[in-house]
Amino acid sequence: MTVSGEEVSKDERRRPARRAVVTAVGAAGLAVALAACGSDDDKGSSEPAGDASGKEKDGGGAGGAVLAKTADIPVGGGKVFKDEGVVVTQPTKGTFKAFSNRCTHKQCPVASVEGGTINCPCHGSKFDINDGSVKQDPAPKPLPTAEITVEGDSIKLA
Fold first, then answer.
1. Which of 21, 88, 95, 104 has its CA 20 to 30 A from that of 54?
2. Containing H/E element for 13?
3. Nearest Cα to 154, choosing from 42, 58, 35, 68?
4. Using an 8 Å Cβ cutoff, are 142 and 127 in contact?
5. Per-residue confidence (pLDDT) for residue 29, from 0 to 100
6. pLDDT category, 158, cuts 50, 70, 90?
7. Rounded distance between C-alpha atoms, residue 57 and residue 68, angstroms
8. Is 11 helix (H, G, I), strand (E, B) or coil?
9. What is d(CA 115, CA 127) in angstroms, rounded to the nearest whole number?
């Protein structure tokens, strides 16, 4: 058989064209990249902030590991617990809140709590210490809440 003036064998007609193969590989790679960039962090974004206002939760007692003493969390500030994946704040005296330590923009860990905000060093996002709401872009949504309990002077993961 002749195609465009060139002789083409039966085997060559059965193989996919190079352009088709390159296009398929490129499309598959793009699909993988887009899937990896997606996130499933919608859960918790519309819930109120994790709140432990110095009171024990229903059922009291058990709780998780002790994160800190209440005196370790400054009023109007907070502390990042990198290994536990949370940040605990004390917006007003005796009111403790907890949030995920992962920025909702690119999942970078937040690094500090200063000036009434929880701060992400990667792209400059800032979140309110009261409710985790976005105070400065590019974060698209609030920090997810985390559950804590306060028992005496101990703050524990719930």
1. 104
2. helix 10-14
3. 68
4. yes
5. 54
6. confident
7. 17
8. helix
9. 11
Beta bridge partners of 109: 102
Buried/exposed 51-74: b ≥16 CB within 10 Å, e otherwise: bbeeeebeeeeebeeebbebeebe
Name the maximum alpha-carbon separation found in the chain. 89
DSSP string, 24-83: HHHHHHHHHHHHHH-----TTTTSPPEEE-SSPPTT-S--S-EEEEGGGS-TTEEEEETT
* Predicted structure pTM score: 0.61
Q: Residues 90-134: pLDDT tens digits?
A: 999 999 999 999 999 999 999 999 999 999 999 999 999 999 999
Give pairs for 99-102: CB < 8 Å, separation 24+.
99/49, 99/50, 99/127, 99/132, 99/143, 99/144, 99/145, 99/146, 100/44, 100/143, 100/144, 100/145, 100/146, 102/41, 102/143
Report the pLDDT value the prediction gives residue 31, as an integer from 0 to 100. 52
Distance CA 76, CA 107 (A): 24
